[in-house]
Design brief:
Layout (H helix, E strand, L loop, with lengths): L10 H18 L3 H7 L5 H8 L18 H13 L7 H15 L2 H13 L4 E4 L15 E5 L2 E12 L6 E7 L9 E7 L6 E6 L10 E12 L11 H37 L1 E2 L2 E2 L4 H29 L5 H25 L10 H9 L9 H10 L2
Parallel strand pairs: 1-4
Antiparallel strand pairs: 2-3, 3-7, 4-5, 6-7, 8-9
Length: 382
Amino acid sequence: MPPTRPAWSDDDVEAFRDLAHSFMAKECAPHEERWGEQQHIDREVWNKAGSLGLLCPSIPTEYGGGGGTFALEAVMAEEQTRTLSPSLGTSVHSTIVAHYINSYGTEEQKQRWLPRMASGELVGAVAMTEPGTGSDLQSIRTKAIRTGTEYVIDGSKTFISNGLLANLVITVAKTDPADAAKGISLIVVETDGLEGFSRGRVLKKIGQHGQDTAELFYDGVRVPEANLLGTEEGQGFIQLMTQLPQERLIIAVAAVAAIEETLRLTVEYTKDRQAFGKPVFNFQNTKFKLAEVATTAKIARVFLDDCIAKHIAGELDVPTASMAKMWTTQMQCDVADECLQFFGGYGYMQEYPISQFYTGARIQKIYGGTNEIMKEIISRFL
């Protein structure tokens, strides 16, 4: 857990933390190397997590969720980091996809999809990015044209987290190709046995090797008009923008947990490793560098805990969420680079956890909106 129990936590949250930690340590961590080689987790792990109540923990109980707050999502992300078990894509599934449905779905849509997401029967993904479009969502080219009582979807998506195993994909598409932002809608695509839907490569990444990331293709895919998320077209861009602060906050949660764990591992290693007849920790450069990292970790934790508390209270604003995502992920990358150096050649070996923290950190500055986009957003409120 964090160095001290956060103010936003309580006994129930800490009990959930213990459950999450135990599950990750027993059901995920021992398989991470194999999952990295096959580039995805075993499908049944989703069902195991669902059976323990680890999926959709902040979704209301009437829809099969845990009925908790964002605090449960936060501890889930923290314990994945602390157990070196990054491959189960619960942040996308539970923290992002389920909340799109809970926030914007009709009562029928919530009853239809959320309980099956909570059980692990459905694995969620959100398909935004396209081969030629990243942060500029208004320029997407995927179309969903209403034909009778159906939408016909044509287009392609890439870099989709959970893309290989997902069978419920919230697809960002143009229902009015002539309009930019107002032409975007979110269409829920249930992929099992769906004609015209296909998956391309599972993409090889420099880090997070066991987290499946895939290409998706839509070739005349037909879904019922009832799969439009919400009750009217053209709301997709607003829906995306409203939910992105929570997505950015969960990225910051993982970043701060990684900073803390990287510091812990490095202090432990440098106190044990001998050089020139004394522990590496005893050299002034080591102590000064790690003092800087410890300070960064403390500041990051205080900032993050304040953001989480505000978010639980419904008070976290857009620029602050952007600041949290931008600054903590930059610090995560800086700390991983500084600390790997103390491991010498061992730090460059994949078997050492520090190398996983190093390679896994780099994507954090990119997804959820690049850090350059975060600075653009922050500047609009100055």
